[in-house]
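ok so for the tutorial part 2 we go from a plain amino acid sequence to predicted structure tokens. step 1 is just haveing the sequence, like this:
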Amino acid sequence: MKFNFQQYLTRVIKYLIYLAIVFTLVVAIFSLTSGSGFSFSTLFREGTEIQIIIFLLAMSIIYPFFGYAKKKVYLNKSYQEDKAKIADVFDKSRFSVEFEGTTSTTFRHKSVVVRMFRMFEDRIVLDFSDNPISLEGQRKDVYRIARMIEYAVRDDRNDG
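step 2 — the prediction. this is what the tokens look like for a chain of 160 residues:
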């Protein structure tokens, strides 16, 4: 897997904005429920502004390394023979084909709301140029769909 610095930087910026929004919402909720109004010094001790900024920056820099993954899935047959089963797995997981090439297919989630909450980083790229095929995208989706594909293409199941 080649490291795509531009994609990484985009994800860092998106997560920084996401974390800043979540942090602001949490501070606003605490301020509203405390009844004393918004006062940064009431919620945090003096001098923590820099620590909070460093924490948010560190989390947004680190998360893209762990939040996205590439997973190989071994097929018993060729991709073309199992293509319908694999497409069915993606359909059941609410993903649709965005782009279909000669060696890869890109899927996007069908729900715009889910895509928005994932900051439009919901693509899963299926590379079928070789066996094993590989899936690349958000870690939780990639690992879940990879397990579903492994189960769907097993030969020892009774499909009748």
